[in-house]
Amino acid sequence: MTVSLDQLEAFVAAAQHGSFSAAGRALRKAQSAISTQVSNLEDDLGVALFSREGRNPVLTPAGERLLAEARVVLDRREHLIGVAASLTPHVEHRLAVAIDELYPEQPLATLFADFAAHFPHVELELLFPMMEDVSRLVLDGKADIGVMWRQEILPTEIAFHTLGWVPLKLVCGKDHPLANTLVDWEELKRHRQLMVAVRSEGPEKQRLRTAAEVWWVESHWVILQMVRQGIGWALNEEYIYDKRGRVDNPSFLDYRMPVCSDLPMLDTVIVEVPNPKHPQGVRGVGEVPIVPPLAAEFVTAFLECLPEGLRCSRAA
Questions:
Q1: How far apart are CA 123 and CA 94, in angstroms?
Q2: How does pLDDT run across 181-238, given as a tens digit for each residue?
Q3: Taking the CB of residue 131, how many other CB atoms lie within 10 A of it?
Q4: From 10, 244, 262, 308, which residue has the greatest number of CB atoms within 10 Å?
Q5: Residue 99 belongs to what H/E stretch?
């Protein structure tokens, strides 16, 4: 069996334009050439792709099924050509970028949308380490570019360029002793401080330390939740809060979603069971509870709200 790209192209054009003559005009070929290529394709595949009983050819059930496959093959041909064109001395075929976990997400999305438009065939890997781990990934050759918060001591082996400035805010829970009062540095030293932990030891890890007692946490977002529980105070980037000092992501739906490195290996199975209550059988997409502490905290709060002596024996 020999199937050529020209045959597939003629088949897709005839199906798209509704006739062999229209397909010929679109491909700048004679109608007879299109008809011959489609006929040869039918002979090679051993199935009829079009019914020719009427004035214009009509796709058969086999033709409708194979049309999608033919389009995939032609799309991959265009992709192959695009990848080959991008493999020039001035365009990388792959780019790894390490970005601090707390860098604003909205400008990142806009930035990489532009990147995808200009370099559609460059393979991209985004890494989200913490603080100085960004520079370490660049030094180790695991990332080509890094975006991080400025350090007091910068590695001399790496070139840096300043993008801007983000002010820090001192935050604590509403019931914390530091809330609703004027605070000086001596007062801060007497209360537990929550700080971002990094994988390496060095002066940068201790740079913002003020209190004698410190808890080290490897996530900005977990620090915020611990602050809300009154466990301690923290210094956090201002853009997380609105103009009135409220956290911009107060609901479970606004939490940082797990990235690829957070997830175990999963086997994906698509279960195509239509929804009988929807006219098109559409179902919603569910999110598994991959961050169970959130659900646990909700259940705890719910049980604490129940009247004394009342038990919940069955979920609705």
A1: 5
A2: 888 888 888 899 998 876 666 666 677 788 889 998 877 778 888 888 889 999 876 6
A3: 22
A4: 10
A5: strand 94-99
Residues 6+ apart with CB under 8 A from 17: 23, 25, 26
Total of domains in the chain: 3
Q: What is the DSSP letter of 124?
A: E
Whole-angstrom distance, CA of residue 108 vs CA of residue 163: 13
* Full 3-state SS string of 183-245: CCHHHHHCCCEEEECCCCCCHHHHCCCCCCCEEEECCHHHHHHHHHCCCCEEEEEHHHECCCC
Q: What are phi and psi of 130, to 5 degrees?
A: -115, 130
Token couple for 130: 């913490």
- For residue 300, count CB atoms less than 10 angstroms from its CB and return exposed for 0-12, middle for 13-18, buried for 19 or more: exposed
Question: Is residue 85 classed as helix, strand or coil in its secondary structure?
Answer: helix
User: How many Cα atoms within 13 Å fall on the side-chain side of residue 173?
Assistant: 17
DSSP three-state, residue 45: helix
- Residue from 225, 201, 286, 219 nearest 259 by CA: 219
Domain span holding position 142 = 94-147
Integer Cα distance of 228 and 244 in angstroms: 16
Looking at the DSSP bridge assignments, the partners of residue 96 are 125
Residue where one domain finishes, among candidates 209, 230, 260: 260
Q: Are 226 and 232 in contact (CB under 8 A)?
A: yes
The SS3 assignment for 268 reads coil
Q: Report pLDDT digits (tens) over 57-92.
A: 899 999 999 999 999 998 888 878 777 766 665 667
59: CATH: 1.10.10.10
Q: Could you tell me if 49 and 125 lie in one domain?
A: no
3-class SS of residue 79: helix
The tokens for 119 are: 């370099």
Q: Which residues partner with 146 through β-bridges?
A: 98
Task: Check: CB of residue 232 under 8 Å from CB of residue 238.
Answer: no
Largest CA distance in the chain: 92
